[in-house]
Amino acid sequence: METRPYISWELINNFMIDVFKAYGVPEEDARICTDVLLESDRRGIESHGCNRFKPIYLDRIKNGTLLPVTKLDIMKETPTTVVMDANNGMGMVASYRMMEMLIEKAKNYGMAGGAICNSTHYGIAGYWTTMAEKAGMIGITGTNARPSVAPTFGIEPMMGTNPFTFTMPTDEEFPFNFDCATSIVQNGKLEFYERSGKPTPAGLVVTKDGNTMTDSGQILRDMRAGKCALLPLGGLGEETGGFKGYGFTRRNIWPGKTAKTRVYLWVKLFRRSLSPCVTNMDLITTSRLRIKEDLKNGLRKRIPAAPQRVERKN
To answer: Which one is the CATH code of 70-145+162-170+256-301: 3.30.1370.60, 3.30.460.40, 3.40.190.10, 3.90.249.10?
Structure first.
């Protein structure tokens, strides 16, 4: 039986904006950050919504690892590309400004790509690709994150949950949006399990001795101490394809290199200290109308998947 309290969207929206402002975030930026967090909840992604409002944003502003006023510096720019430095400001604000620039560039040249360095958590990746889709474009984005995922046959957290996301227009009332981490589960989901008093399903986390864990609270404590790690898509070892998820997590090299920053060292510092959690991200958008129409038609022609009855033999 559902026992959680429910409040109106308007109430939580106004509350979060006011609190962001009280912590020093400019009003326009506060509105952007609030919309990103609430869009996660509207999509049913409870791991990245308002449940992260305090621990990921307010607490980090308070302890100085996240700056409330976002100073953006353009490091390099061409007609179709941008490299931006977010200076440890609000990652959601930096991503919003970057997507605005890329959409305008793509309108003129058909495609544009950008990278942001020295940024911070940017919420759900699908928010940014949907910005491109709303402009009639295809959006792609990804980012690195602090090490929390073990490699194939490993037990030490060495890679981030590094999402890879894209959104494209369709001829339905909604776009085709793919937004997921390259690990089976993310830290935000573990936090949600703990707050809800639920165990973590077995097979998502590996301990130092190679076993699995289900106590959500203990998992979070051990994660912070480096005593356990999340597993990549496919799970533990080769039999279920864990090496594929491991390969996908390695895409963090892409935003790190395009932004011309170190990928692992700075991010890893955050787990053991109050040093800024430096993340890098890349965002790409295209406005080729021919591509868009081909994709729409191609998606429409696909035969919908339907359950099939399987006759079992005794």
So the answer is: 3.30.1370.60
